[in-house]
Amino acid sequence: MLKKRTSFTLLAVTVMIALLLQACGGNNGTSDSTSTPAATGSSSPKSSAPSGGEKVTLKVWGDLGNQAVLEEPFKKINAAFEAKYPNIKIKYDFAQNDQSLNVALQANELPDLFWVQGDKTSKMGEMVKNGFLLDLSSHNLDVSRNSDPEKSYCTVDGKLYCSLPSFFDTNVVYYNKDIFSKNGIDVPKNWDEFVQGLDKLKAAGVTPIALAGKSEWDRAWPIFAFAPAFANDALKAAQAGTGKLTSPAVAQTLQAFRDFADKGYFGKDFLAQDMAGAQFSFTNGKAAAIIDGTWNNATYTSSGINLGRFPVPNNDGKRVVQSSYSNFMTYAVSSRTKYPEEAVTYLNYLSGHEAQQIMEDATGLVPTIKDIQPKDEGVKELAVFDEAGLNIYSVLTALSTAQSNAADTFMKEVIPKLMTSEITGEQGAAILDKAAAYPAQK
User: Fold this and answer.
1) Residue 289: helix, strand or coil by DSSP?
2) Which residue among 66, 152, 237, 398 is least enclosed by CB atoms within 10 Å?
3) Which residues pair with 289 in a beta bridge?
4) Where are the chain's structural domains?
5) Is 333 helix (H, G, I), strand (E, B) or coil?
6) Is the four-CA dihedral 358, 364, 369, 372 of positive or negative sign?
């Protein structure tokens, strides 16, 4: 008997997240190591900001990869902040990606503030280790509205290093309700129904799922969605060192992705398609669905199509989703900033209800704090699942070392070879197992 689908309240989502070991989400994640020279003056500097209402300008780097989604809310957030704090001017530029951040770290020329991914990857911890980030513990960052897991996201060695998250990220199937209805397809109750629906779409001459095969991160979203559905227990065991990535469940996850490519569910030219092309294929009706993150919900909502959303169900009909915190509003302060107090004032504003509601109204993310009002009913639809599970990339990051990076192996070797049918799911699992460094058992 299929388990009854559970519609979680947004407050319940917060409770479930509290059970997570670690998380990932957000677009354009990175596993690049921060092997850069240690910054000088890593202890908290005293503010040298002008007093008496003189203007202080804070240079802030935004997420270049998500500029299209974030430009509108941050214009409003920064304008509201400057109106509230007229002595602080925000010079906000969408200048940050992996490359620009690494260059700034190497040159020791970070802006005053920049976005980080907390404990999703090892990057923030490495920046802390090398003295690049300001310890916020003694700067009265307001964390009164946040849960312990949200605080842990920003914590390294017991100290806070970024503004706290307030939104939940996962991967779902966005689908065109009109195309599904025309082809007699309902929201699938289990994996077999999901695949049967894709077969119907292909037979009707419709690309079942748009995929950006050209983009390293965006082509991975289907596996990110499949992994918790099929292999959540196996990933937990691997991360704890009580199991291996050669588990049949992990192999099944990887094989499902290869099967989708082999069967043509991603269309004919997906290998050469970037994310903009994949999104356009979906929003203009050439593809019936796309697997993407909740961070892009606003993109699909604004397209005007009759939009629906559902998580990937497993064989038994259980809907276990990848879970993480959104990094759209999690910013750190450079240890070399001349204006630490003003920078923390900005972080406090980002961590507050006013800025969070502006972000919610613009993007339709899933809130994890109960006083943030969901943008619309579609946001509630994103929170319909049975269990919040692990993120495969975060698990592989936890199993990585400086000598062998399992997460990089997954993104740069295993996924491309699965897409081009060079390896099977079982072979992919073996590659990951060889790259992994499991924790020692006592």
Assistant:
1) strand
2) 237
3) 175, 209
4) 13-28+39-168+325-382, 171-322+399-435
5) strand
6) positive
Strands 159-160 vs 155-156: parallel, antiparallel or unpaired:
antiparallel
* The domain made up of 171-322+399-435 is a member of CATH 3.40.190.10: yes
Q: Which two tokens stand for residue 74?
A: 């941050």
175, 34, 6: which is closest to 102 by C-alpha? 34
CA distance 350 to 299: 22
What three-state secondary structure class fits 142?
Answer: coil
Q: Compute the distance between CA of residue 38 and CA of residue 227 in angstroms, rounded to an integer.
A: 37
**Hey, CA dihedral for 126, 127, 128, 131, is it positive or negative?**
positive
CATH, domain 13-28+39-168+325-382, list 3.20.20.10, 3.40.190.10, 3.50.20.10, 3.30.2000.10: 3.40.190.10
Element (H, E) at 93: strand 88-96
pLDDT by residue, tens only, the chain of 442 residues: 333 333 333 434 443 443 333 333 344 333 333 433 333 333 333 333 334 467 999 999 999 999 999 999 999 999 999 999 999 999 999 999 999 999 999 999 999 999 999 888 788 999 999 999 999 998 988 899 988 888 988 999 999 999 999 998 899 999 999 999 999 999 999 999 999 999 999 999 999 999 999 999 999 999 999 999 999 999 999 999 999 999 999 999 999 999 999 999 999 999 999 999 999 999 999 999 999 999 899 899 989 999 999 999 999 999 988 878 899 999 999 999 999 999 999 999 999 999 999 999 999 888 988 899 988 888 878 878 888 888 999 899 889 988 999 999 999 999 999 999 999 999 999 999 999 999 986 4
| Start-end of H helices in 241-339 | 248-262, 275-283, 297-301
* Identical fold, 13-28+39-168+325-382 and 171-322+399-435: yes
